[in-house]
Amino acid sequence: MDSLTQIVLGAAVGEAVLGKKVGNKAMLYGAIAGTIPDLDTFASYFTDTVSALEIHRGFTHSILFSLLFAPLFGKLVSLYEKSASFKQWTILFFFGFVTHPLLDAHTTWGTQLFWPLDLRLAYKSIFVIDPLYTLPFLIFLILAMRKKRTSAKRRKLNNLGLLISSTYLILTLVLKGIAFFQFKNALENQHISYTEIETKPTPFNTILWTANVDTKNAYLISHYSFFDSQPIKFKSYPKNHEKLGRSKNSEKIQDLIKICNGWYTISEKDGELYFNDLRFGLMSLSGETENFVFSFKIETSPEGITITEVEKNPQDGKKLLKELSTRIFGN
């Protein structure tokens, strides 16, 4: 999830653990704990594109990280914050660390909660930025912050924020299930043969959903809103995996394929090859372009293969938001 959401979650968890004892300091250190796992994003400054993608939401988003580093941070804070014990600070940091990847597991990217096991949890039920999750949570946290640390109402407000946010997460799974069956029924009604289907919400909401459908030679992409009144339509995007040629066996390409769980297409433009990660869809809901959210340019030289992420055009983002504001209310 986005940084603000993780800060709010960490602060609320910190309050639940130590708020009654140390007041707003519990929220402060909880917010810090909720931020620390995402420091793995700095790997992009020290390594190549593919390696940075592999590192993100890896070790720092694992239970092992929480177990190893919670005592370290608990000890550091207990040296100058005497209002709570080393054990209490350790518990705060542990829950601040571990709830971060538990929330991230609901996103499309997922998280390696059980690192070093090669298993990425990705429920794909919530977008990385969802105002319906974050804003009510933030409001209750602010209201709780304004109460005295010994106030019973403070704890009730904070717990209510945690309850509402957790309930919304469960609701997203229910909505995902409903959307899945809508896509599945549409494929059956249109007699489309497929091997796999995955669903995920579009940006900032859980009303409009996207489906990626795996067929023999192409992927189908479609959208469904709970306000739709017309049948679901699917648009085909050729896989073109054969365009990779021998480079498909290279370590970097294999790593990319693994990162996107095999959901990718290859496109060619001006003689250059591009690897498109289908998990995050297109920069358009109309399907009139093959401008994918995550696309990587593949360059081959005698020294090997270089992979570079294609920069996103801000204008495409604005266009997508405009399309979302219309499409979310039905087709």
UniProtKB/TrEMBL annotation:
<protein>
    <submittedName>
        <fullName>Inner membrane protein</fullName>
    </submittedName>
</protein>
<dbReference type="Pfam" id="PF04307">
    <property type="entry name" value="YdjM"/>
</dbReference>
<feature type="transmembrane region" description="Helical">
    <location>
        <begin position="89"/>
        <end position="109"/>
    </location>
</feature>
<feature type="transmembrane region" description="Helical">
    <location>
        <begin position="59"/>
        <end position="77"/>
    </location>
</feature>
<feature type="transmembrane region" description="Helical">
    <location>
        <begin position="157"/>
        <end position="181"/>
    </location>
</feature>
<dbReference type="InterPro" id="IPR053170">
    <property type="entry name" value="Transcription_regulator"/>
</dbReference>
<keyword id="KW-0812">Transmembrane</keyword>
<keyword id="KW-1133">Transmembrane helix</keyword>
<feature type="transmembrane region" description="Helical">
    <location>
        <begin position="121"/>
        <end position="145"/>
    </location>
</feature>
<dbReference type="InterPro" id="IPR007404">
    <property type="entry name" value="YdjM-like"/>
</dbReference>
<keyword id="KW-0472">Membrane</keyword>
